[in-house]
Amino acid sequence: MKKSIVTFSGILFLIFSLTALSLTVGLPASIQPEALMNHIRYLASEDLKGRYPGTPGSQKAVEYIKEKFKEYGLSPITLPYREVGLRSVPTYEQPFSITIRDLRTFHLNFKKKPSISSHRVEEKKFKKLIPSRNPPNQVDRIENDERFEQPALPSSIPLIFSPEGIYQLDPVFAGYGLVTPDYDAYQGLTVQNKAVIVLDEVPDFLRNYLRTRGTLSLLFEKIKTAQEHGAKALILYVEANLNVFAPYLLYPFRLPEPIAQEINKARKQENFISLEMEISKMLSSVKKPPFEIKIPVVLIPYYPADTPVWLDGKTTFSELKESLEQAFPSNGQKIAFSRKLDFLENWTLDLEIKYRTQEIKTTNVLGFLPGQDIQSCKGILSECTYEVVILGGHYDHLGTNPEGEVFYGADDNASGIAALLEIAKALSKKKYELKRSALFIAFGAEEWGLLGSQFYVDHPVVPLDRVIAMLNLDSIGKGKPLEIHLVGSSVYPKLASISRKYMAQLGLKEGPNLDHFAFEYGTDHYPFHLKGIPSMEYYASNFNELHTLQDIPARIQPDKVAQVAQVVFLTAFELLTTWRN
């Protein structure tokens, strides 16, 4: 259920005055800089090796956070799902995997006896083209370090959402593959259990339709239409090149040219760690199809003068498109290109897609602080009317570079986790004053594209419609003195107004608004925002120093971390103690 901050606006100002609340929470000494620095020194120590997911250092960070949650009185949670094969027992961990798929075998073959023409690429015997870059004491980042040499690949490629499988299908040509109020490419065709061949473009008489959709939406629409008509595969011919669809063709050893160039530039930067991480970040930000893709989708580039293998050997794509245009008189009447397509009758299509999966296991760490609403129900959530405030921050970082140098991640984001732990400790001491409950989450795999927070909102331990706000801490230990950025303040101004009140009381100022470039995909608040939960990130750092080898504990400003932690503590305390009017 989509919630708005307006739904609880009555709680914001009506109960506690600033003076009364100041006396209640004990400003400003409830969170101490030295306690925060103790957490940061450990999390950003040599022993943890940059907290790269799936490594011993990452697991040490997890164990440390779990230990502190338990010490500070937070309860473990019960996972409401069984995908990970765990029993429903209380735990502080919510495991998930980082998964990268590479194309292992791809075979597309149009076949008509006696002639055979094919697009084909097959797995070759493994060769050490790219040597292992894993530093000592760091686990392999892929299942098998023996990577295969990339052969000279053909230009056809399956969409990353395509399922694996081996198919032998009869092909059928369906023009532009659309069904609109004025055009039905499937009228008169039988495509059930067949491979549908379509052109990616939109004809001139449907240009207005294109303007209302856009290239990507048209791609998804053509896939959905083929599926709904019972097709078992979709072969999409794209004029000139596939660059417009590059984000949907991200295979580690078959990268589209524009992305390959981007990756090559990234390799020269100090903070480049792995191809897998870069691809994961890219995939996390692309628009997902609004439905499940159940059939393989293969994209093939062409030029207008090309002659498709399955035609008569003379007709070019340009001539084929011209015949399609001529079949549609511009009189506004709904018509279809229904002439019999004899050139495909005696053809078959062989298609094989296999993937190689790279998997890194990691986890979110969760601790629950029940409020009086749940305690009055003796912890039986199904019988409670309760509400929750979520506080979070990510604990993962970049690990080490090929030379074994450590990205310590003191600011990004040991500082946020340190604040999260001390806020948990401070709120736990006041648990009998909390009318609502608090859920603390240390997210994994944020650097891979917000994977931990996205996994949580897809598998919440409390219903999302019970969550009234999400407060996230990320990189809060540097930057200008006394300055804090409230990322999301323009999106949720009433939530921001609570923090501004306490910033003013503490003598802090708000930094320039970053929402225009930092709110979307910025960090772990964003998946919660997409679920309709009022969400805000607290940031206080210097962008130029993030993801560098210089992000070390010695460069942290302890007072800055304490100031941000205090603001978040006070904001959370008000949300947790003030009933709606």
Notes on the structure:
By secondary structure, the protein is α/β, with parallel strands linked by helices. Helix content is 27%, strand content 20%. It contains 15 helices and 19 strands. Strands 3, 4, 6, 13, 14, 15, 16, 17, 18 and 19 form a ten-stranded mixed sheet that branches. Strand 14, helix 10 (410-428) and strand 15 form a beta-alpha-beta unit. The radius of gyration is 28 Å and the shape is elongated.
Q: Please tell me the overall pLDDT.
A: 82
Q: Using the CA coordinates, give the radius of gyration.
A: 28 Å
| Structural class assignment | alpha/beta
User: What oligomeric state best describes the polypeptide chains here?
Assistant: single chain
Which sheet architecture does the biggest sheet show? Answer: 10 strands, mixed
Task: Based on Cα principal axes, name the global outline.
Answer: elongated
| Separation, N- and C-terminal Cα atoms | 21 Å
Strands, count: 19
Uncertain spans, ≥5 residues at pLDDT below 50?
Answer: 1-28, 81-86, 121-154, 330-340
Q: How large is the count of helical segments?
A: 15
